[in-house]
Amino acid sequence: MSGPTLSSVRNAARVLKEFSSERPELGVSELSRRLSLGKSTVHRLLTTLTEEHLLVKNPDTGRYRLGLAMYDLGNTAVTGLNLHAALAPPMNWLQDVSGGTVHAGVLDLREVIYIERLDSPHMLRLFIKVGRRQPAHSTSTGKCLLAHLNSATLDRILDGWKMERKTAHTIVDPTTFRRQLVEIRRQGYACNLEETELGVISLSAPIRDRSRTVVAAVSVAGAKSRFGSELLGLSQSVREAAAVASHQLGYRR
User: Fold this and answer.
1) Among 44, 66, 152, 246, which has the highest number of CB atoms less than 10 A from its own CB?
2) What is the pLDDT of residues 172-182, one digit of tens each?
3) pLDDT tens for residues 95-133?
4) pTM, full prediction
5) Cα 132–137–141 angle (5° rounding)?
6) How far apart are CA 249 and CA 253, in angstroms?
C-alpha cells in the first residue's frame, strides 16, 4: 500500500475529492495546504488530471475546477445504480406477455455481459447466468448494442474480428454483419434466429439514458417452435419494455 504508484493514485483521488459545490475552484497553494502536500507535488497532480480532462484550469484565475470527464463518470455511476431498478418492472411485464426467458445485458467490446435474468415459466431453460459473457455477434443483445455504437468505435471492434460460427445460421461475414447492424439501428430491434443455439430465437431492443446513449439492451428468448410465428408481436413488446426502462433512466424522445 505504500508503493509510489498507489500513493500517487491515492493523492490524485484526494485532490478530486476536495472539490465540492462550496469549493468549485481551488488553486495549488490552497490544495497544498489542505492536503499537506508539497506545492510541486500538487502541481504535477493537477497537470496530469487536467491532461486527462478530469480537471480544467481557469485561465483567468489559474485555479482548477472539475472537468467534463468527471461529469461523464458521475453520470455513468448514477446510470449503473439506477439501471437495475429501472429494469425490474419492464422485464417482469415482458416475461408475462411473452412467456419467454428475459435478459438484460451490457456490451464489453466483443462480448455481452448479462446483468439481469428472468426464467421462462415454460419447459425451455436457457442457461445464461447473470454475469456470464457471450460473443456479441451471435446474440440479439450483442447485435443490438453493437448497432448503436458510433462509427469509429464500431470500426475498432470489428477490425480483425474473426467471428465464431456457433451454428449454421451465425453471421460471420463482416460485410453481411455490418449491413445487418444498419438494419437493426433502423428498425429499433435485433433478432437472433438460431444463431447461438439451434431451435432458439431471441429479440432485443436498446435501453437509453438521459443523454440518449444506449447503455444496455433487454431481450426475450424462447423456442423457435413457439416464438417463430410471433416475431412481429414480440418485437413490439421488447421495444415497449426497453422504452419503459429508458424512460426510468431519464430518456425522452
Assistant:
1) 246
2) 999 999 999 99
3) 988 888 899 999 888 899 888 888 776 545 554 555 678
4) 0.67
5) 60
6) 12
